[in-house]
Specification:
The protein is mainly alpha-helical. It has one domain. Helices cover 78% and strands 5% of the residues. The protein contains 5 helices and 2 strands. The protein has a two-stranded antiparallel ribbon with strand order 1-2. Strand 1 and strand 2 form a beta hairpin. The protein is globular, with a radius of gyration of 15 Å. Its main location: membrane.
Length: 127
């Protein structure tokens, strides 16, 4: 990948995680809806995952921490898979103002693998 395009996609990916992490604090109630009921301390997990997303996004922007950030994102996305499966099981439901249909819930799952692959690219690139 050419350097300018690489930088643009890196900044997009990092900004995505920073903003997603901030959203955990701005729209906390929404995350309770998609949190599997069997997980303990949902409030803690929502805030903790938000902090991890913000930190991961910031660390992606630093050359020396990019590989660690990519690994952290991969592990985080794998840890989020139960929430995405739970969404499929619960659909249809309202997520804030948005109706999550079974189709939308199913489409979110492959997106997680796309994001894992994207983080994997940065992990391998820094090897």
């Amino acid at each position: 990948m050419k350097r300018p395009i690489y930088k643009i996609f890196l900044w997009i990916y990092a900004l995505f995680y920073i903003l997603a992490g901030c959203n955990h604090f701005l729209s906390t109630e929404v995350y309770y809806v998609i949190m599997p009921k069997w997980l303990p301390a949902p409030g803690f997990l929502i805030y903790f995952s938000g902090i991890l997303e913000i930190i991961s996004g910031l660390l992606l922007l630093i050359n020396k921490t990019r590989k660690f950030a990519a690994l952290l994102i991969i592990m985080m996305l794998i840890a989020f898979l139960p929430a995405h499966i739970y969404m499929i099981q619960q659909a249809p439901f309202m997520l804030g103002q948005i109706l999550i249909t079974p189709l939308i819930a199913w489409l979110r799952l492959p997106l997680q693998f796309l994001f894992i692959g994207w983080a994997g690219y940065y992990f391998k690139k820094m090897a």
